[in-house]
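Exercise 7. Given the encoded structure of a 261-residue chain, write a plausible sequence.
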């Protein structure tokens, strides 16, 4: 049984620019994400999936230069692209992480993977709804279910959001790793904009190369001690999104971030 993290990435291929290609302490944001994902317990490989329109861009070269696996799939269909990557590398279980998640916590992601197996759920996440800072979201999906979602997808929304069909399906059992909530879920650690890049660079300026492996608990403690580093979620309600139609069927005990005083 092969378990792989799949990170889907793309740029504005006409200008070859994207926050994921921004420099972050001497490496791109994307490679910071891929490096962190390689430390997730229980994961056999890390794959970056890009649309075929990106094949000749610096995005593809950046992934290959750093020695990570690359899958090139259909453009304009995120669900087909993810399914293609899983088939390309014969993956049985997919751990889906955003290319914007420069501070994804490997141990937290590993606990979402454990939750899928321990609960015998069809789908596991830590974001139904989230109780963590944005940018720590992880989804774990059996590849067979991912391929089924691709076969039955019938709307543009389902093609654009690879896990929408399974999150909404009434007969699939979904498990959620509960976060601590409170002030933490109002923080935004995603590197998806100029503000996100400035935040991430401020963390690297503060911690140096230690930022490459800083845990969610350590980063949360730093942000709570340093209000100048806090970056709140921009839109009201975005910090704790409500999953359309269907919440998780199985809730874990609260997985607290053990923040040092």
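Solution.
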């Amino acid at each position: 049984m092969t378990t792989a993290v799949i990170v889907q990435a793309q740029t504005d291929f006409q200008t070859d620019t994207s926050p994921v290609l921004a420099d972050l302490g001497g490496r791109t944001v994307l490679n910071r994400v891929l490096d962190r994902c390689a430390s997730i317990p229980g994961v056999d490989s890390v794959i970056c999936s890009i649309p075929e329109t990106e094949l000749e861009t610096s995005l593809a070269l950046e992934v290959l230069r750093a020695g990570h696996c690359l899958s090139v799939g259909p453009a304009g269909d995120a669900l087909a692209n993810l399914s293609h990557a899983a088939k390309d590398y014969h993956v049985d279980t997919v751990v889906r992480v955003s290319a914007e998640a420069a501070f994804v916590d490997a141990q937290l992601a590993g606990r979402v993977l454990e939750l899928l197996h321990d609960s015998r759920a069809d789908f596991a996440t830590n974001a139904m709804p989230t109780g963590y800072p944005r940018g720590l979201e992880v989804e774990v999906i059996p590849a067979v279910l991912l391929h089924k979602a691709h076969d039955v997808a019938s709307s543009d929304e389902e093609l654009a959001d690879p896990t929408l069909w399974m999150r909404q399906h009434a007969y699939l059992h979904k498990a959620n790793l509960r976060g601590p909530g409170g002030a933490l879920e109002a923080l935004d650690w995603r590197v998806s904009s100029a503000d996100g890049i400035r935040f991430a660079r401020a963390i690297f300026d503060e911690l140096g190369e230690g930022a490459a492996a800083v845990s969610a608990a350590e980063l949360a403690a730093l942000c709570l001690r340093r209000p100048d580093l806090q970056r709140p979620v921009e839109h009201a309600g975005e910090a704790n999104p409500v999953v359309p139609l269907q919440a998780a069927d199985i809730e874990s005990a609260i997985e607290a971030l053990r923040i040092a005083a």
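Remark. Confidence is low (pLDDT under 50) at residues 235-245. Students should compare their own answers with the one above.
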